[in-house]
Each structure stands twice: as structure tokens, then as C-alpha cells.
Design goal:
Helix content: over 70%
Structural class: mainly alpha
Length: 74
Amino acid sequence: MTEPLDNIEVLKQLLQQRQTAEQELERARNTFLKLNGAIEALEQIESSKLEEGENLMNKLNPPQDEPITPQVVD
């Protein structure tokens, strides 16, 4: 038959579990921050690519103020 744990033993175990949980939370927070940083960097890269693509398209096909209409020559 096992003896019941006294409050001191339970308290020690709970303190150890809390310390372990805090360490895991800190690691998870660091991972989360790194992921957010990587996501933001890639979003900025992709956004600038789109802007560059739009600028390139504007250079290749500049918007015209007046549409060109064909004229019939008699």
C-alpha cells in the first residue's frame, strides 16, 4: 500500500511542473516570433515583386490619355 503524498511533496512537484511549463512557453513564444518575422519578410518581398511587376507593365504598356481610334481615310 502506498502512503499518501504530503503537501510539501505535492508542492515541490507542482513547482517543477510550473517551471517546465514556463520554459516550454518561452520556447513557443520565441518560435512564434521567428515565424511572424519570416512571414512579414516574405510578405514584403512578394509585395515589392507585385509593385515591380505593375511598374514594369506600366512601362511596357503605358496608360494612354486618349484611346486611339482608327480613322477612315478617303
